[in-house]
Amino acid sequence: MATRPRRQITQYLLSAALLAGAAPAAQANDLIRHWAGITAPPAPIVHKVTLDPKTTALLLLDFVTQTCSNTNRPQCVATIPAIRTLLATARAHHATIIYSYVLSGTKADINPALTPRPGEASVQSGPDKFLHTNLAQLLRQDGIKTVIITGTAAEGAVLATASEAAYRGYTVILPYNGMSSTHPYAEQYVAWDLLNAPATSQHTILTSLGLIRFGS
Questions:
Q1: Which of 164, 175, 167 is nearest to 60 (CA)?
Q2: pLDDT digits (tens), the chain, 216 positions
Q3: Which residues form the Isochorismatase-like domain (predicted)?
């Protein structure tokens, strides 16, 4: 009967021991295994904000038929009355207003309650509204320093555009009830991510639509 060299046997036993020791650690860090038992972090603080309209832009992202209707995302439709109120306030203070619509649509798809006025800009893109658009140029030419991000989907247009705005050094005002998704978990993790991720956490302020004010 053939026998294995002593060195080979020793290496085999050492490998087996290492694997056995690693198993509990791997299980402890098993996201899927522990998914249902993970507890959400405490709710973040919601701030009142007063903004300078001369350097603030309100971004209304993808309030369009394809992503915001009673058939595909009623949560988005439910946000529109409060968004409309904020839009009226922003207009009254002459803040910059910028819309977006999806690649598969046109500007005409924007919800009638939020119809753009002549002179209000819009961009067409995927989730990141800076990508392949003139959004950066529009913000620069108006001297914008702060962006209010509203829209749908939270995990799409809101997260991607807010993150990119933060990376570019803008202050991001995120009204938690001004974004929507098909599931509240997405809205929750987007708020958490923007408030905790590197770079975005330094530039993001969580607020409510009713807590946004404009200075004179």
A1: 175
A2: 444 455 554 454 444 444 445 455 555 679 999 999 999 999 999 999 999 999 999 999 999 999 999 999 999 999 999 999 999 999 999 999 999 999 999 999 999 999 999 999 999 999 999 999 999 999 999 999 999 999 999 999 999 999 999 999 999 999 999 999 999 999 999 999 999 999 999 999 999 999 999 997
A3: 56-196
